[in-house]
Amino acid sequence: MPRRLRKRLAKPMKSRIRLRPPARRKAAHSPRRKVNARAYERGARSRLKKFRQGTALAVALTAVLLLLFGGVEETAGQEPNSTKTAPAPNESAVKQPIKADPEASLEEATTTIRDFLSVFYGLLPKILIALLFLVAAWLLGKAFRAVTHRFLRGWERSEAIAALVRIAFFLIAIGAGLSVVAGDPRALVGSVGLAGLALSWALQTPIESFTGWVLNALRDYYRPGDRIAVGEVFGDVYRIDILTTTVWEAGGPDKHVAGAQPTGAFITFPNWEILRSNIINYSRDFPYVWDEVAFAIANESDLAYTVEIFRRVAREVVGPVMRKPAAEYRRLLERERLAFDVEDEPQVYFSLAEAWTNCTIRYLVPVRQRRRWASELILALSIETARPEHQDRIIGGYPRREVDLLEDSRLRS
């Protein structure tokens, strides 16, 4: 192409392309952007500096720990600058396949077994010493159990103390035996810590049950023969084991036996319920309970006369049974410095219901005879209220319903 033609074609293109100077607004904002960039740069440098300092501190602490607790025995027999570089392998030797030698393999296996047996024979005296430690701990535990059962009166409490002491003896014996076998206290501490962590995680429920048994034995929450309620379990304690408690079940509102009497069934629950549930003991220090019987009386009855009659009947039925436990209850409260009034005779109380009045008789009876005395009191009150002289003054209450009849004009026509 001729040079003149090139110049003619290039002139309009140059005229079209113009270099514009940067806008003033952008130039106005450029110092602020530079300031922000400098601030970000300073922050990044400070964070990098802190990271380097932390890394150096971590490396220094690791080195100190290695110098104190590790690496001493390994480097004790080494000489400085004794490292030797291995010669480079020959390429032809690397490319050649390795041939299996049965005799060499058999010799290597025999050497391994021989080394294992030699190590085992070397550890055999240490293992025997560890077993002797365990036997000594077992004998000491049995001797301490016999001593506690002889000098301590409470069987459950002495059993708990003996169990704790036996566990302490066995832990000491296991630690001593492992230290003898391992020979290195640092390795022993690490292995025992890991093993204890794993066992505590795997045996969490049995450990909690054992803890509940020890706590019950020391604090005496319940004993065999007590009537208790733990969670949904209600009945008489039959047997207390290390991990479980067996209860002779008693009846209740949601059971096939409605009264608080034995159902004939045994319930076994884990002892960790002691740590998680409320424990209600009905017969530990005071084998009596307050019970109530309620009668429905119509509002048209003579309430003052009803109180007099019901109190007299209750005094005749449960009054003699109530005097002794009431006096014992009063002494118990005085011993604990609790100022409460204790009634020596049955009391009668009123409460309003929907269409009648509830007359409640409150009295104190043995814990396992609630149903018997309630039945006798109900029978006596029923006989008394059925007499003719009480017919118009003590009227039984029944549910009532009022019906209002509205007349319709269409029915009249």
UniProtKB/TrEMBL annotation:
SUPFAM superfamilies cross-referenced by the UniProt entry: Mechanosensitive channel protein MscS (YggB), transmembrane region, Sm-like ribonucleoproteins
Residue span(s) of domain Mechanosensitive ion channel MscS: 206-284
The entry's keywords: Cell inner membrane, Cell membrane, Ion channel, Ion transport, Membrane, Transmembrane, Transmembrane helix, Transport
Segments for region (Disordered): 1-39, 77-101
Record-level GO cellular component terms: plasma membrane
Feature: compositional bias, Basic residues: 1-36
Localization: Cell inner membrane; Membrane
Molecular function per GO: mechanosensitive monoatomic ion channel activity
Domain of life of the native organism: Bacteria
Gene3D superfamilies (alphabetical): 1.10.287.1260, 2.30.30.60
Transmembrane segments: 119-140, 161-181
Membrane topology, as annotated: Multi-pass membrane protein
Major site of localization recorded for this protein: membrane
Cross-referenced Pfam families: MS_channel_1st_1 (PF05552), MS_channel_2nd (PF00924)
The protein's assembly and partners: Homoheptamer.
Function: Mechanosensitive channel that participates in the regulation of osmotic pressure changes within the cell, opening in response to stretch forces in the membrane lipid bilayer, without the need for other proteins. Contributes to normal resistance to hypoosmotic shock. Forms an ion channel of 1.0 nanosiemens conductance with a slight preference for anions.
PANTHER family: SMALL-CONDUCTANCE MECHANOSENSITIVE CHANNEL (PTHR30221)
Protein family per UniProt: Belongs to the MscS (TC 1.A.23) family.
The name this protein goes by in its record: Small-conductance mechanosensitive channel
Source organism (scientific name): Nitrosococcus wardiae
